[in-house]
Amino acid sequence: MGKAKDKSGPLGRRPDNSAFKQQRLPAWSPMLTANTVLPFFYLLALICMLLGVWLLLTVQSTQEIKLDYTELGNCDQCFQLRKNVSYAAQTCSCKVEFSIDRAFKGDVFFYYGLKNFHQNLRRYMDSRDDEQTLGRKNKLKNPSSYCEPFAKDAGVPIAPCGAVANSMFNDSFTLTYHPSRSRTIPVPLLRKGLTWYTDKNVKFRNPKTDNLTLAAAFEGTRQPLYWQKPVYDLDPHDPTNSGFINEDLIIWMREAAFPNFKKLYGILNRADASFTKGLPKGNYTIDISYNFPVQYFQGRKEVVLTTLTWFGGQNHFLPIAYLVTSSLILLMAVVLTLAWWKFGKDGKNMKE
Amino acid sequence: VVRLLKTSPEKPITLAIGDGANDVSMIQEAHVGIGIMGKEGRQAVRNSDYAIARFKFLAKLLLVHGHFYYIRVATLVQYFFYKNVCFITPQFLYQFFCLFSQQTLYDSVYLTLYNICFTSLPILVYSLFEQLVHPDILQSKPGLYRDISKNSLLSFRTFLYWTLLGFSHAFVFFFGSYILMGEDTTLMGNGQMFGNWTFGTLVFTVMVITVTLKLALETQFWTWMNHFVTWGSIAFYFIFSLFYGGIIWPFLHTQDMYFVFVQLLSSGSAWFAIIIIIITCLFPDVVKKVFYRHLCPTSTQKSQSLSAPQAQALSCVESLCCYQHGQSGCSRLACLLEQMMGQCKASVNNCHTSSRSNRSWSDTEILYSNDRSILTLSPIEASRC
After folding, report:
1. Are B378 and A254 inside 8 Å of each other by CB?
2. Using the beta-carbon criterion (under 8 Å), do B280 and A134 form an inter-chain contact?
């Protein structure tokens, strides 16, 4: 049986008699009835409940401390100083004290946070040149027009160009532990390994040096207007952390989704003898080199210390969402069972 | 006369059928004009919207084809608006958080490909193949046509349902993701933070999966093609995102999406969030469907549940079982079918009764087999049962 006949005669233009063209494809016709759906609902409610409880227990083990230091203690003087642009070159430092009641066990992460800073503004996000930070030589001295007006400084190209790089956060922090009134132990923070692996090793590359120093590779460019140091000097102690691959720069360049955000500054170095188990309880001070002015956008600055679990920081939303959803599903399943029992059992309603 | 009917108070939709040149003006005047090719020439056919060969085919045209096509087109239109509402509303909601600066939530490639690649095929296959009820049941129960009369599937009520569903889903996508990421929570175990492209990708992923699964809930007739395009669309989205984010694209001044998708997927939190958001969106819909089916089922739904065995018997009739003077090549298939469906032997006796119920079939009409291959021709000459 094939197309043996010629396409002629009264049946010549008949469409093909295949299951596909005659809409007779074999198919599965599911029907959403209570018998099929209810066991599934009960199972789902059970699974969500178990997951919710598990996640809740995991989250309970995290600890977090937040400190808003914009005007805290003697940081207020720095805050007033930074109101005046002409003193921008002056350094200002202040101290903030806090104490921990329960020791932070495990890895401790040190973040800085900003409030009311819109890194998600469109013109701000467009104002960058990823090709330049990729290390492409032709783009180093010829930044993209998207970077305007932060592309050139009196005719000299800026590296890295753009508003994002220009507004880089430049406060620095040193943490100290006071086990007793007289002793102080500096808390060592790892300032590497903070970025995505692909960011540090692929997306951001220094222009090729060819045995030149980093400073020479950036010859012919200037630092962004708001910076105090040129890009090749961001980390004088470590050449693998200078230039475009500086971790603070990379972290800053990953724009946050919302106006209140935090970014990773350092991780506790647990190789140090005093801090192998984490942060012990007691008094701490943070020495802050206060540079970043926030009053222009009514912003706040804060410091966050937190421990994490495998699924992230102190976020109660997930476990609560799972528990709430499981109880709702259970409720609806019970209501549905009752409705089915009363009205629809054995196809009561289905008779015509 | 047709014009008179059209202007009557209920404003009915009129259908006129005719086969001769004198029927042309009537066919043109009615909303739906049907011409019959016949002894009186082709005049009527040339002026009509639809042409058929015999008057008796009108029953199948109206009750089966008309019913199916109406459902398909109506659902297509409603679903299209729904999925685009789901698509655009999170972008709008994001503006409240980015000072209305028109920053997009999703990357421009995703903006372009959403309607072209990620969500186009499932609805296309739905609108080609969807069958709510078996065609034979539709023909034997003309009353089922009343379920879709008066443009009920495109009424204001149905439109409101789909649109409000779209808005509520979009709110759940956006605010679910927003509360999860908590503005400043890390989702990774190593402390690294996500950026706004990762957030947008999370919303987009949840959205693509939910709108596809919503259509899967609406589909009642799952052919292999439906399975292929539904699960294939979701798989394609994942594969494409991995591909797109895995390359540093030359000649682009921004590499926003580089490795964003992989980072998102490597976060256990994000996976849990995706699952809970999808469940939250689709669960009320499933409950509503089951409730309505049990508390106030439509006649179509009643005929769906009761007539499944009847339909099976019919398909057995259509199969080769009846025609034991097996025709060349098909007799082997007949034996196979008889072996697969054990009851075939008994249904030989049902041939008489069943064929009588199919009023539109005549004895001399060529009957076809329910073969499983999609593109083979297999006409069988009918023989009297």
Report:
1. no
2. no
Token representation of residue A80: 């007033």
The strand pair at A64-68 and A300-307 is best described as antiparallel
- Residues in a beta bridge with A112: A263, A303
The residues in A 299-318 lying below 8 A from B, measured between CB atoms, are 304, 308-315, 317-318
C-beta atoms of A325 and B279 within 8 A: yes
Q: Which residues contact A257 (CB under 8 A, 6 or more apart)?
A: A120, B97, B181, B183, B194, B195, B196, B198, B199, B200
- Which DSSP letter does residue B259 get? T
- For residue B130, give both structure tokens: 């969807």
Whether residue B185 and residue A16 make contact (CB cut-off 8 A), yes or no, is no
* Chain B residue at shortest CA distance from A252: B195
CA distances from B221 to A27, A321, B68, B72, B288 (A): 6, 34, 12, 12, 20
Which chain A residue's Cα is nearest to B128?
A: A23
> Do the chains contact at B294 and A199, CB–CB below 8 Å?
no
Contacts of B182 in chain A (CB under 8 A): 315, 317
Total CB pairs under 8 A between chain A and B: 257
Written as six digits, the tokens of B282 are 């689709």
**Which residues in chain A are closer than 8 Å to B374, comparing Cβ atoms?**
18-20, 25
Using CA atoms, how far apart are residues A247 and A270, in angstroms rounded to an integer? 20
Cis preceding-peptide flag for A160 (omega within 30 of 0): yes
Closest Cα of chain A to B75: distance in Å?
A: 17
pLDDT in tens, B277-331: 999 999 999 998 888 888 777 777 777 765 544 444 434 334 433 344 434 444 5
Report the residue count for chain A: 352
Q: Which residues contact B244 (CB under 8 A, 6 or more apart)?
A: B109, B257, B261
pLDDT attached to residue B57: 87
Contact residues, chain A, for B372 at CB < 8 Å: 19, 26
Give the one of A31, A194, A261 whose C-beta lies nearest to B305's C-beta: A31
HEC assignment per residue over A135-157: CCHHHHCCCCHHHCCCCEECCEE
Report the first-to-last Cα separation within chain A, whole angstroms: 44
Taking contacts as CB-CB distances below 8 angstroms, the residues of chain A near B285 are none
Task: Give the DSSP per-residue string, B162-194.
Answer: HHHHHHHHHHHHHHHHHHHHTTT---STT-PPP
The tens digit of pLDDT for each residue in A99-110 reads 999 999 999 999
> Which amino acid, one-letter code, is at B215?
L
DSSP for residue B62: I
- Contact call for B131 and A27, based on CB within 8 A: yes
Task: Judge whether A80 is closer than 8 Å to chain B, CB to CB.
Answer: no
* C-alpha distance from residue A103 to each of A74, A313, B106, B111 (Å): 27, 17, 41, 47
- Longest C-alpha distance within chain B, in Å? 82
**pTM here?**
0.85
Distance CA B314, CA A17 (A): 18
Q: Taking CB atoms and an 8 Å cutoff, what residues of chain A touch B330?
A: 1
| 3-class SS of residue B346 | helix
Which segments of chain A have a pLDDT < 70? 1-10, 344-352
d(CA A332, CA A350): 22
Inter-chain contact A1–B377, Cβ cutoff 8 Å? Answer: yes
Copy the structure tokens of residue B195.
């950026």
Query: β-strand A108-115 against A104-105: which pairing, if any?
Result: unpaired
Which value does ipTM take for this structure? 0.91
